[in-house]
């Protein structure tokens, strides 16, 4: 059997703040999960995402410490259009989340932006700059 990616795990310092951020990105996480030490959501296609509080991680790994400096993980959310990238970036930053890269037209053909989640992890927002051409298999 070949291992397959099944779950993306994230360690958070404030479960409620983290879940509120990801709900704004469309993840279906019930409000009653805000006070739990471990939360999971199933994404389209079956991949799961999970959040654990720092205390939960320390309960089985007492030597665990949060990383320092810029995070090395980045989640990327595909948006329906360049306008949606701009609108979502504006919504998230208006809600108090830190914008890391304002929306711009990237040289690789996407409208692209990065917002930091409550724990400082980069969350990319992107959409193709131009509608896909059905005759172009590369898009």
The succession of helices and strands, N to C, reads EHEEHEHEEE
What is the makeup of the main sheet?
A: 4 strands, mixed
- Total helical segments: 3
**Beta-strand percentage range:** 25-35%
Q: Class by helix and strand content?
A: alpha/beta
Q: Segments where pLDDT lies below 50 for 5+ residues?
A: none
Q: What overall form do the CA principal axes indicate?
A: globular
Strand order of the main beta sheet, please?
Answer: 4-7-6-5
Q: Can you tag this structure with a few keywords?
A:
about 30% strand, about 140 residues, 7 strands
Describe this structure in words.
The model has no long low-confidence stretch (mean pLDDT 89). The protein is built from 3 helices and 7 strands; from the N terminus they run βαββαβαβββ. A 4-stranded mixed β-sheet has the order 4-7-6-5, covered by helices on one side. With 139 residues, the protein is of the alpha/beta class. Helix content is 22%, strand content 31%. It starts with 6 loop residues before the first strand and ends in an 11-residue tail after the last strand.
């Amino acid at each position: 059997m070949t291992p397959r990616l099944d779950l993306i795990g994230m360690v958070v310092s404030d479960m409620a703040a983290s879940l509120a951020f990801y709900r704004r990105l469309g993840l279906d996480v019930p409000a009653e999960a805000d006070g739990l030490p471990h939360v999971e959501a199933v994404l389209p296609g079956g991949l799961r995402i999970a959040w654990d509080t720092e205390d939960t991680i320390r309960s089985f790994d007492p030597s665990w410490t949060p990383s320092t400096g810029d995070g090395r993980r980045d989640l990327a959310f595909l948006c329906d259009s360049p306008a949606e990238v701009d609108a979502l970036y504006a919504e998230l930053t208006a809600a108090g989340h830190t914008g890391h890269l304002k929306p711009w037209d990237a040289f690789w053909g996407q409208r692209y932006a990065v917002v930091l989640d409550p724990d400082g992890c980069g969350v990319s927002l992107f959409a193709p700059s131009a509608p896909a051409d059905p005759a172009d298999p590369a898009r």
